[in-house]
Amino acid sequence: MSRALVVGIAALCACGAPTTEETGPTSSSGGYGGSEGGHGPVVADFEPGEERPGGDTTVELRDENAFLQAAANLSAARRGPYEAGFALFDIAWLAEGNEDRDGLGPTYLGTSCRACHFRGGRGTPPPPDQPMTSALVRLSLPDGGGSVPDDRYGEQLQTKAIAGVSPEGWVSVAFEAETHNFDDGAPYELLSPRYSPRDLAFGSFAPETLFSIRVAPPMIGLGLLEAIDEADIRALADPDDLDGDGISGRTNEVPSEAGLALGRFGLKANQPDLRRQTAAAFLEDLGITSPVFPDDNCPSVQVACQASAGELDIDEARLDATVFFSSLLAVPHRPEAREREVLQGKALFISARCDGCHHPSFVTGELEGFPELSHQRIFPYSDLLLHDLGEGLADGRPDFGATGREWRTPPLWGVGLTELVSGHTRLLHDGRARSVEEAILWHGGEAEAARDAFVAMSASERAWLVRFVRSL
Amino acid sequence: MRSWWWATVAFVVACGSDAAQTGSATSTTTATTGGGAGGDDTPGDGGGGQGGNLPPSLRIEGPPDGLATPTRTAEITTVLSTSRAGELSLVKSGAAVHRLDVEPGAEQTLRLRLPLDLGSNAYEVRFVAADGATATDGRTVYGGARTTGNLSFLAALRDGQAHCLGGGTPEPKVLTVDQVRSLSAYGNGNALYIVDSAGDVHRTSDCVTIESAAVPAPVFTVAVGGAHRLYLAADGTVWAEGLNAEGQLGLGDLDDRDTPQALPLTGVIAVAATSDASFAVLDDGSVMSWGANDEGQLGVGEEDDAPHPTPATVPLVRGALAIDAGRDHVVVLATAGKLWSWGGGASGQLGDGGSGFLGSEAQAVAVQLAVPAAAVAAGGNTSYAIALSGELYGWGQNSLAQLGVGDTNQHPLPTACVVGSSGSIGAGAVGATALSNGRLYVWGTNAGGQLGDLPPVGPERSSTPIEKAWP
């Protein structure tokens, strides 16, 4: 589908849609939202099962602890290893002196997993002039078409350190507002981040240094994403946009324990599985070494860090327990999934082609060792592929096969619970968007047509679409 | 059509617009065409079938009338029914201090912000509909703490006089400070801090000898930590003094101060201190913390042994209105009566149901109080909330009957206190004192004669409230 056609349909949809709800329910034509006769808002079909986006793992709880619930179908017999993993997620690590929980650092971002993953939820940019508490800074230097780590600071700026070792520094964030207008004239405002390095211990950053700020992503449903058959993800890829719909979708082929593999996790799909993702977070964020990444993270100029680097901090069993826990955090159900406005929003989501990347549904395959996660009909609203989102969101920092403009489609499930669980409404990789609406408006590149369709919608249509996204 | 809510509207005929300033709750409704007095209004047919042209009705849901809170603002919750759009205003001393545009609707809950002066603050909530119909209600809020407690004493305030119970004798003492407006103490300490009507601060460790504490600005309230103090000035600035090994003064270094130093904070509406950490609520609803973090008491998501001398925003918590702290834990009241807590939790003092070895929380958890709250207090390993309805709840350590809930079991969830409704709660580490309908009640340990005759003549402790006569 060409971009012009998408915009055309969206415009037709916008023209045909009254701004009130006076008309009765209208059934959709095959779930697509193009208005055919101008007889009121199109209501998408309710798809049985979509109210339980994690399949049998789905939990009912929707309070501030909603993202720290075990899969509903986890048996009592398997609660033990889950709780063991939860304890490792929760525990504050020490530098030394307690065999069960030492190994922190030498440099690190937080003393525990939950220090950034508050309540299993989403991180947020820091207040002005304060260090980040649930976000981090990735660093690199351009090198040909790719990038190399900064030889003094490595790949990630470590804001804390154990006694006797210097923290690397920190970065403050300020936002500049810019006002734009919807097609109906209503104004909206987008915030662009501006970063300032502070207290750098090993000298200023080179001017060409590439930064990427990433807030902690939510922890729910990760095991279900791992359980999706690789072939089903690859089938969605269209790297050369052969179908001409303006949306490509590329895989990131990344290192795994068995050569290159499909990347699924991380904001640029730079990790193939939760085991490697978890081990990387242990190392990069806590300074905890494991059998997967046995060497502490100390660039050669950081002598005190190197002198403090020690032996292996956690063994296979404790890494496995943490992975087990991370795999089984459940997705909450969707009590509003059947509501009329939500289904109107769903129709608009589809007609604007948001689903071109935010792929609604999969049936998971067989994930070895996880019967809870296998063969589940799930609704993550992600294709787990890389997409060019345009210059506005680009961090300029390549990551294996991902370019500086590409991001992995983030799952949308649970997004409406962000405020309740995480105490804020900030979205996107660096938390610059203050709402679902702003997050949509930041989309560019392959998502520009969808963004334009949203900008062309009436105020009530925009509200329905946002309501739908928040209902996920 | 809209008469379903009309039927629930109760009319109270106004007999004097000054009634609110006496502290008694008053509610009036005046119809548009009622000629002003409105004394003969009756809920009739709504003006001859005009479909929803009904006089507005308004009531204050909370805080309870006369509630004492050591915060520079209070959130007033009102419930309004109106068939016309209009303006809701909060009026104090004849001036509107907060206005809201309101759309028509039944039983709308609306929240207004009342700036508080030290002492009694009378206010009126007034709705004026587009057609001129009005509805009003009024109450008072007391700015300052009227009760407090520590290891030695329980203290309470009436008519500008502070009374001190305990200290090794069963006879109450009256402090020789005039025009007292607010009392503070560290629950696990021995000193009392007293703020008078001029904003001057006095302190005593025996309720007899009074020293003055020189603070460069008129003070609203004092947060007393283990060995440091935060003075919240009436202008929203904060001054810190005392020991500083954990950075608990928030001045960016670890140097002790023996005179109050200004913190780089403005717009502060409430402060609190644990043994060696400090907290401030800002008027934007955020909470800042600094100092020790070994129990996760800074609420930043992690615990560590390092000092934290620079104030930093506590994640997850928004809309904060009030705060209090015990030895190593914090309780926050947020908008709409929501309660958050974090820090040390071994004794169930976080009120989230947890306790024991893993009971501490380094990030905010929701206190499991089923009703909206209007005020919080914490001392030692205990916590309290006064509900919007006025009922008092306690949770946490209770081995010395400090919760006043009728037993000496630990309570990791909020539990109704026997005293029932309360307008002021002072939480010590070993006992508490509350005001209820103007009466003074105490419970907890009697080791210092807080409850009356010393043991063995008197009881060792009481888990039910004992009324004490005002001297």
Provide structural commentary.
With 472 residues, chain A is of the alpha+beta class. Chain A has 12 helices and 13 strands. Chain A starts with a helix and ends with a helix. Chain B has 471 residues and is mainly beta. Chain B folds into 2 domains: 3-142, Immunoglobulin-like; 144-468, Methylamine Dehydrogenase, Chain H (7 Propeller), CATH 2.130.10.30. Chain B is globular and about 65 Å long. In chain B, 56% of the residues are buried. Classes of the chains: A alpha+beta (472), B mainly beta (471).
Strand line-up in the sheet with most strands of chain A: 3-2-7
Proportion of strand residues of chain B: over 45%
Find the CATH topology of the largest domain in chain B.
Methylamine Dehydrogenase, Chain H
Please tell me what the overall shape of chain B is.
globular
Kindly give the count of domains of chain B: 2
Q: Which geometry of chain A do the CA atoms define? A: globular
Cα distance spanning the termini of chain A: 26 Å
Write the layout of secondary structure elements.
The complex is a heterodimer of chains A (472) and B (471).
Chain A: H1 3-16, H2 79-90, E1 107-108, E2 135-143, E3 146-148, E4 160-161, E5 170-181, E6 187-198, E7 210-215, H3 222-227, H4 230-234, E8 253-256, E9 259-262, H5 274-286, H6 303-308, H7 316-327, H8 340-351, E10 362-363, E11 377-378, E12 386-388, E13 406-408, H9 418-422, H10 436-442, H11 448-456, H12 459-471
Antiparallel strand pairs in A: 1-4, 2-3, 2-7, 5-6, 8-9, 10-11, 12-13
Helix pairs in contact in A: 1-11, 2-7, 5-7, 8-12
Chain B: H1 3-6, E1 26-30, H2 46-49, E2 57-62, E3 67-69, E4 73-82, E5 86-92, E6 95-102, E7 105-115, E8 119-129, E9 134-143, E10 147-149, E11 153-158, E12 161-166, E13 169-174, E14 180-185, E15 192-196, E16 201-204, E17 211-213, E18 219-224, E19 228-233, E20 238-242, E21 257-262, E22 268-273, E23 277-282, E24 287-291, E25 308-313, E26 320-325, E27 329-334, E28 338-343, E29 361-366, E30 373-379, E31 382-387, E32 391-396, E33 411-421, E34 424-427, E35 431-436, E36 439-445, E37 461-468
Parallel strand pairs in B: 3-9
Antiparallel strand pairs in B: 1-9, 2-4, 4-7, 5-6, 5-8, 8-9, 10-11, 11-12, 12-13, 14-15, 15-16, 16-17, 18-19, 19-20, 20-21, 22-23, 23-24, 24-25, 26-27, 27-28, 28-29, 30-31, 31-32, 32-33, 34-35, 35-36, 36-37
